[in-house]
## 1
Amino acid sequence: MREISFTQALDEAMLEEMERDARVITFATRRATALERTFGGKRVRFTPISEAAFTGIGLGAAGSGYRPVVHWGMVTFSFVAMDQIVNQASKIRYMFGGQADFPVTYRCTTGGGAQIAAQHSQSPYSMFMHLAGLKIVLPATPADAKGLLKSSIRDNNPVIFFECSRLAAVTGPVPDGDVTVPLGVAEVKRAGRDVTVVGLAYYVREALAVAEALAREGISVEVIDPRTLVPLDVAAIRASVRKTGRLVVVDEAPATCSAASEIIAVVTEDPETFRALKAPAQRVCAAPVPVPFSPPLEKAALPDQARIEAAIRRVL
Amino acid sequence: MREISFTQALDEAMLEEMERDARVITFATRRATALERTFGGKRVRFTPISEAAFTGIGLGAAGSGYRPVVHWGMVTFSFVAMDQIVNQASKIRYMFGGQADFPVTYRCTTGGGAQIAAQHSQSPYSMFMHLAGLKIVLPATPADAKGLLKSSIRDNNPVIFFECSRLAAVTGPVPDGDVTVPLGVAEVKRAGRDVTVVGLAYYVREALAVAEALAREGISVEVIDPRTLVPLDVAAIRASVRKTGRLVVVDEAPATCSAASEIIAVVTEDPETFRALKAPAQRVCAAPVPVPFSPPLEKAALPDQARIEAAIRRVL
Amino acid sequence: MSVEMLRAMILIREFDLLAIELRKQKRVHGVVHPYVGEEAVAVGVCSALRRTDRITSTHRGHGHCIAKGADINRMMAELFGRVDGYCKGKGGSMHIADFAIGMLGANGIVAGGLPIACGAALAAQLEGAGAVTACFFGDGATGEGEFHESLNIASLWKLPLIFVCENNQYGAENAVESVRVVGDIATHAAAYGLPGVTVDGNDVLAVHDATRAAVERARGGDGPTLLHCRTFRWLFHAMRDAPPPETRSADLLASWTARDRDAIARLEDHLAGQGVLTESALRTMRDEVKRDLDAAVAFAEASPYPDPKDLLVDMFAP
Amino acid sequence: MSVEMLRAMILIREFDLLAIELRKQKRVHGVVHPYVGEEAVAVGVCSALRRTDRITSTHRGHGHCIAKGADINRMMAELFGRVDGYCKGKGGSMHIADFAIGMLGANGIVAGGLPIACGAALAAQLEGAGAVTACFFGDGATGEGEFHESLNIASLWKLPLIFVCENNQYGAENAVESVRVVGDIATHAAAYGLPGVTVDGNDVLAVHDATRAAVERARGGDGPTLLHCRTFRWLFHAMRDAPPPETRSADLLASWTARDRDAIARLEDHLAGQGVLTESALRTMRDEVKRDLDAAVAFAEASPYPDPKDLLVDMFAP
Ligand SMILES: Cc1ncc(C[n+]2csc(CCOP(=O)(O)OP(=O)(O)O)c2C)c(N)n1
Ligand SMILES: Cc1ncc(C[n+]2csc(CCOP(=O)(O)OP(=O)(O)O)c2C)c(N)n1
Ligand SMILES: [Mg+2]
Ligand SMILES: [Mg+2]
């Protein structure tokens, strides 16, 4: 298998899906030069800096037969468009009684770690998860990025596709050809017996590194990557916790009302899993602050291997 | 003590706070006729339908020495203003190193139950809780409404004050005079031994009704009203669960990444409380759909006493 | 055609007057935003559109639905919250849609429909079959950022779109003069490089003609037009259990509801003057409208409420 | 005064050229958005303001800070992420503020500062002491809804505000013509009933004069002005580890950087022509600027990084 970067994997997915289906169109404030060259300025557009308008345009075009892929840039900029996401996209199919489909994919980058401070280092996927009506995708590897973006574009619902910035340049094996990854299916990235660590995006890697280190001490860590947050593969997470009896969730969003809170809730409220739980579930999340600029502060604000390891040791 | 309605209690708080402090100003798209008569059109304004602008105006005026109370109308309309809330208000003090304070209060109505369908029946407080940097208030009684609104206006930070629509006409005793309720302090609305029910807003009443009914069977339910969601009185909730060993959280927002998820997480991750937990914690929340219009569907979508009771029985 | 327009306007008015009565009786649910007095805008615009053209609507959307050709039985069933409603009872008054006739939905969010309309227009532009989109919004919506963003992008991309501002002089309780400085909303067009046209929104033929010109321009690939229709909301902004009290002056109301300003009376008089419509034909028409509305109520009441076990149906498309 | 303006413009340019070098060397962190070429806008505007007047800024905010009188030591320390920076290292380049001098903050969100500026202007109006607010934003910001909403509400409320559009011809990689149809951004003003003025943004005296007129109007209670300043971004939009390659034509660049168009050279020549500035005085000025900048870097590097244990400090006001 080829080793390509996360970004290259996403570019391949766009190219292949636009080739596959002429109804796939795309726009963003930033020019997608390569796609524009291949598919022309009708299907590949750049827009004014008008996120509310072009988010709604994606939705309207989706309801009229197209399959838009709208790139917001950073997730930060989606907040300008929140009316179209919360009040329109997440509700439009259900409130109209299912009479039309809205196959639109919203892409955005997410996360901290690059010293670009509060506004440009956000990881607010849980805010979108809370809205019934959107599918939420958060890949951690180049292969998943490609396969999940393909599935998102082919899905007949509004999907928000988060691209962790710290993964952009990370490389990994990506299968050739048209390989999709289904939405709603978690992957056990490493099997283990003693504790389940659910990591999101960049923190799948970090969790794997910690698992590797602890293996040398005979501690067996299972690392699960949900890959999609809506639908969340609750069955896979619960099954793992029933096996290990211990849960640590790692993510770079602040803990309050986060995806990590949700994962703890779905584990705790299930009688059988609850009975299997031998220790308090732990969240390893960002400190409850806007991400600060200065490198030592930013480092202190975000999870890291030491904090993951400490949480694992706390529950063992 | 006088019995007045939730709405009257809020009106009194506004009147008294504007009297108390000339820096309190207020605006909304809807005219506040009584306040305008008393305090004049300079301090009491109505605005164009421009939520993004007037949300930011509140923030800018707060940073320049005033204490604006901005009423969005329904929380629905806040999504038009989300940039100013997420990217500006929640981060502005911290990212500028604490050099200025931003004492702005955003009021809005929330909740379903009035057959006004998907867009106008939202309860998305958890989306705002997730953002480090906002205080979040959600009162359940007229007295708390008045006392908490006063505290919110006097607080030196951005506060979002949610007013549950189904409580607007509900009456209750409200103390005379300048009585405040502190932010961050839960109240045990009914003491009990067997199970802790944390209810939010309208569902405090419903939980109390269920507690009353179950008392006749000898089941002793403790009902806790957090009153503010940020800061959340984690100590009070944990203490109650350590006593009862059982937890049910009731709210009309959908469960995923909700305040209910958060409450379960803070209970589960605390070693001592976890050890005291005798049964899986339960969420009684809205179905994961936009709130439907038709009365039987809406009723099915939202929690009710029967579902609260069933959840209590499940954990006993 | 003008007779058809008259019939549509009468149907719209009677539909909403009936909806108010039904709401008072608590037979229909939720909120009612009556379109009474503004019928010429919906009918003038939609009569210049084809079935394959699309529209987006507002919270005050019944008139747009009817003008675009929606089935009043299914509309009524929706207000009643029944399974045979357009949205199977899930939407209600503020969320009626009929994608089959290009009615892409009412919208409870002021200005929320404009970006969606741009998206529909983009789809039409890509399809290349000459379809256009008309996008209704109120004077109050001009305060929102989505209004501005949509005008800019539609002009830039030459989208086949007609922006129809229904200036009914009020946004809820606020007079338009109290929320914007410049009265003529068409003045916004210049900064986007598109035509801005102000018409008498109570003259259905004038609205139709102005729309036709805008539609031609749009179909010809020359882009959008901003059409500013001056009209008036005869009744209250919205009602739940009971209509709120009128706060506007009696003089103002009288000046707009006078026979020479009422869009329906004007078209009646015009058609009578032309000899196209006799008194008795008019009476027949009004009787038919009444019969159709009675039938719609009967249809709605015969339809069952949705089954709570279908609560999760329609959430996600397969 | 003009000599002070020249000094400020030179300092702004040299500050940003230095910031680029420091960023290449990884001594400062994050993103740098250089203001090189646009100095006359910040200086022309701020020289017409008082210390008690307020401004809001953008992602490209170093020039606005310096023009409003910020301390370059604390600015530099902020870029270095040190505790003596304006935000104690919590903000960085995109979030510098100095409330003591009325600099209410840079802003990473395009158009995000406009509503905040309206709020500051409202405060000034209520205070009644005649303070005004100037609000900087780019040509790209005119695509955002917040631009429109702010113009409308500021005009309606006659807020003492100057909307300063820095049209540097590009929003990131996109030429202004590619994102809007009408080139003259001042044309937006008419629909809001406020004056729209276009000036040569590379002529600091013209910017100053236009601002002074707008400030007088604002202090007099007559409301806001939209000031459209045509200028040019000499360098890249933004850099992280290395400056991105230039994609614009050499001819275009040459036409804007030519001595007769460069704002700094023009003022130098003007002052020299007037006999106000000798060659040696200019040399001295440039030397002083360089010395001040060296001192700022020394100040920044002498300042410690924030202590991680202070991570939660500054979150909530007591
Ligand atoms: C974004 C948003 N803000 C506020 C409201 C509340 N609201 C509903 S209708 C309305 C007035 C709308 O006025 P206009 O656009 O003139 O339409 P009209 O009601 O006159 O038809 C308001 C403020 C809303 N629905 N959406
Ligand atoms: C709401 C929002 N959308 C997108 C961006 C990304 N972005 C940062 S600067 C920029 C270009 C801004 O152009 P302009 O307003 O002309 O300012 P300039 O950079 O030219 O000074 C963009 C698109 C952003 N910061 N905020
Ligand atoms: Mg109106
Ligand atoms: Mg620019």
## 2
Amino acid sequence: MRMAFRFLLNLKEIRDDSKYPPLFLLQHPKIPPIFAGKIYLAHTMAKEYDLIQLKKIASQVRRDIVRMVHACQSGHPGGSLGCTEFFVALYFTQMKHDPKFNMDGKGEDLFFLSNGHISPVWYSVLARAGYFEVSELATFRKLGSRLQGHPATHEHLPGIRIASGSLGQGLSVALGAAQAKKLDKDDRFVYVLMGDGEQQEGQVWEAAMYAAHNKMDNVIATIDYNGQQIDGPVDKILSLLDLKAKWESFGWIVQEFEGNDMQAVIDGLEKAKSLAGKGKPVMNLMKSAMGFGVDFMVGTHKWHGAAPNDEELAKALAQLELTLADY
Amino acid sequence: MRMAFRFLLNLKEIRDDSKYPPLFLLQHPKIPPIFAGKIYLAHTMAKEYDLIQLKKIASQVRRDIVRMVHACQSGHPGGSLGCTEFFVALYFTQMKHDPKFNMDGKGEDLFFLSNGHISPVWYSVLARAGYFEVSELATFRKLGSRLQGHPATHEHLPGIRIASGSLGQGLSVALGAAQAKKLDKDDRFVYVLMGDGEQQEGQVWEAAMYAAHNKMDNVIATIDYNGQQIDGPVDKILSLLDLKAKWESFGWIVQEFEGNDMQAVIDGLEKAKSLAGKGKPVMNLMKSAMGFGVDFMVGTHKWHGAAPNDEELAKALAQLELTLADY
Amino acid sequence: MIKYSFTEKKDTRSGFGAGLHELGKTNSNVVALTADLTGSLKMDAFKKDFPERFFQIGIAEANMIGIAAGLSISNKIPFTGTFANFSTGRVYDQIRQSVAYSGKNVKICASHAGLTLGEDGATHQILEDVGMMKMLPGMTVIVPADYAQTKAATIALGEHVGPTYLRFGRPNWPIFTAGRPFIIGKADKMIEGKDVSIFANGHMVWQAIEAEAILAEKGISAEVINIHTIKPLDVEAILASVQKTGCAVTCEEHQINGGLGDSVAQVLSRFNPSPIEMVAVNDSFGESGPPLDLLKKYGLSPSNIVEAAEKAIKRKK
Amino acid sequence: MIKYSFTEKKDTRSGFGAGLHELGKTNSNVVALTADLTGSLKMDAFKKDFPERFFQIGIAEANMIGIAAGLSISNKIPFTGTFANFSTGRVYDQIRQSVAYSGKNVKICASHAGLTLGEDGATHQILEDVGMMKMLPGMTVIVPADYAQTKAATIALGEHVGPTYLRFGRPNWPIFTAGRPFIIGKADKMIEGKDVSIFANGHMVWQAIEAEAILAEKGISAEVINIHTIKPLDVEAILASVQKTGCAVTCEEHQINGGLGDSVAQVLSRFNPSPIEMVAVNDSFGESGPPLDLLKKYGLSPSNIVEAAEKAIKRKK
Ligand SMILES: Cc1ncc(C[n+]2csc(CCOP(=O)(O)OP(=O)(O)O)c2C)c(N)n1
Ligand SMILES: Cc1ncc(C[n+]2csc(CCOP(=O)(O)OP(=O)(O)O)c2C)c(N)n1
Ligand SMILES: [Mg+2]
Ligand SMILES: [Mg+2]
């Protein structure tokens, strides 16, 4: 029971599971009312949040994202905002994972972020899920932080298993982790998220080919299909044409779902699990909108990697309900 | 007139076009009888060889290949033998090209070899087409030679425009050359050959995507679809699954033809030209047999990169008609 | 007193952008390529005015190098632009085979090199690019010091024939070389001195100039030489200076292994063994942070150069 | 008289194959990967006996590095095997981010390094790999001298934790280190001497041993030290030797820039400036030819080492 709380509260005092009785936790004044309902261990928490709760977490994560990027005046809000539902759904309804964090992730579902520039959403969700104090989000991209501009293991931030940022490498890493799970007869899943612009990197297709040939059916990959990359719309920069046909021709099972509709994401991820284990890797084409949730950021590559100024921050926060406490 | 002879004769004395009257050439005792018919300038020679003549050239090229590889006891006979019809057809019936060799190739069709390890077939055809003396084939892979193990410009061998050997790079280079032709309003074609194992390199798919998006319809690519790579059959090592579907999903026009039937290759290359210029790059999937023409080499990856010993050489040569003079 | 003053700071990458635009006007063979980083590389002006000579490759750096090599075959002069990390380590084999070994006239132009790209962190802060590129036979390697010199170097590349690596960066930086001649392969002596030779390049030239002022106050006469071209190295200038001063300090925004320091150490070891102190990143990855804070944390501040100079002088026999 | 004798020649890559097979038996976490070069890397025995721990990646080296990094997360110990060129330059960025910066326990094992791969020519003859790998923070870089040492090094990697680059080659070569202890990071003094220190690694150790015999005949006492580990460098051993001899010769099958020579030059410049002569490929690409002919043509023969030693000695003050 206690672990789930840790996800949401990040109280240093309750890091040690054995020290406090459940009662203390349930009565703790900082537990927000939306979590007064059922609370489950991380390992079994799938679907125990209702939609309203998940949306509230997502709103808070979006607040974290814009505040983090604003605070250091750098970073990538666009893709982060667009992938918020995905991260919240994955960590709060799908994955079996342990915020105490074991690097080897034995018996857990693993997640890899290939498009490492959207680190803000990952950091926020990791913190909100109990991997580290939410207060640490304030250090994002600052000197000496564990929250590097792009995810890194170098500073030992819990939740991160490999560095990313240089695009195109994450799917390969996920395949290696998935191979290890097969070797170890560990039947959990390996999740990986990539960008759509990132599909232009050849290494992605090397990995695609390998996964199909080697029947990596414990891999569930997702593409943030937001149609944007740094220099403009993907279709204008270097079109992916029929991306579904591409992945199918590379031997994957491909499904599409909406990425900024929490229920659609959950359903999509559930569906993905049911498609897995059938001898083929599974690809989710997740249609999202870059910058989703902040009206002046949505749908344009302009906010791929730009930080809001004070005024823009205020405008953004005004659109994002405060649901848990800001860090 | 004289250039065409140079292709076949490689007489140092006739390097300088102006020095000798056509009569001298036509009466020269070394002109083999099979070329006593029509002889045309390189630039206009397309289809002026009849099938029998082309097959005879191919037989001689195959002799060159096994002799070259035998002489230095290294090199790649398998892919070379399998691509002999392709090279002969390309250089003797398709390309507008000048054996005097201008690096920039303005106004000429260009050819790039991405799977550089099959250099023997290219060197033989270049020599037989007049780019350099056939006697120089004897230096293949020997110290100080211009005929490096893998094609190189470093030693200034005529006919070569870029080094290859490290797989996966040739299509990209061809695209650059094709872009230059478009810039220069030069409407000739850029040809490129790749291996099927080579399709596993991600860079190939980067180039594939670029070519379609940028409507590189002056590019005619061919894959030596021989089903073999170093460690075994491609299907066992890392299957390409439906390769046609892959290239189509990447936006290319794809056709297939038999690679060891001279007429089929010529027809296929003619067809490719007719498919070009329509806003899409053209891909030929050329089904060939590794080691074709030598019974004990055919169809196995064992001869991808192995040299015949003396006895094997004799056995091979016994199967390959001597048509032009051996170098 | 700092011997050079500046009235403006600008990013070196903007010098590249301005030089490229200039070249676009004067040389119709110049073409430019980018891998989804037009704005970061300041290639917008070139793109706007010469759209038919601008190639957007998408996020596919390997393909970009190959396309550039192909373009060069027909006498185009391709300038590729992406971050330094993706300009070198990502595509080393492609550069090696299709550009360097093939002797192609491709200009590999690389921004966001070194620690000073700042907040993006270590994945992007390449500190090994110079070391990689200088190992390639026939490759010219240039690390200009400021906006003006980056612009001059870019323009110089229009005439220079052969594969080249041009390295520049992201932060605003003092402009202090304006009006000075820039000659590829010719070291630029910024300050005469007699006690110690300070060899620097890139952003570190300014750091060295600041350090010289501090040393001068301490009564130490330092010679500051801008080794903007790492390859071909101006061996004569290095030997002549150390002949006079008897010791050297090298300063670079690069790993201590493989860069300017090692180039100088090789030259001196082979021709005139002398004490060298190296100001460089000491075999570690960088991290996220503001550029100047990073330079400080990783030992690349003027005070580190001062310390190194004092140490080098002490080590003279 | 040559101080070491040998009864057998074997290729160093076979030492890797034998060591890997050994490890397969003793350590069930050891896994092996190849990119369509099982036979060339001599991984057949491992593949045959431990098929479920052998991963055929196909011709996709970047993917191989990523997969290896992923495997290491669950405490597998991946050994990747392909040619040295495709083990380094082809995948530098992948190694940098997914292995070195991420601190993954991946063993990058590279065959056909250097000129001595012979007939395949310059596209394959990487002479910059050591320079690249030694720039990566946290990377261990090993260049063993013969079959026996390559086998020992491979086995040692089973216990060693952290990213490693192991470089070996193609030709048959004298086996002369059998029975000698191999310790990562610890230089191996092969021959004591007092006039000049010869530091060598890889195939060049044997060349140095041959050179020493010639020097001895000329009355010159050369110390021969096998620097099989380029990183971490055995700085103490280098300094101690040069302290005694007063000058050094470095010998490597590598570009003169970036390799062992530069490592030694850096150490001496920083701690004990001394004359160094470098026997290495002098900033040029290789070419096709028989291994020994190539070593001769490119100045890597025992006679070149002899000359270099004599020159270094003359340069002592
Ligand atoms: C190998 C590599 N090349 C270039 C970059 C620079 N870069 C960072 S994000 C990005 C665009 C990525 O597009 P996409 O994957 O669609 O992500 P989104 O912009 O949608 O977040 C680029 C080019 C990089 N990080 N890595
Ligand atoms: C980047 C790279 N990786 C590996 C190799 C080694 N290699 C040379 S040929 C070859 C197999 C190529 O297969 P394919 O393209 O089908 O050519 P084929 O064997 O049919 O001639 C390999 C792996 C290489 N030359 N380049
Ligand atoms: Mg996108
Ligand atoms: Mg094949």
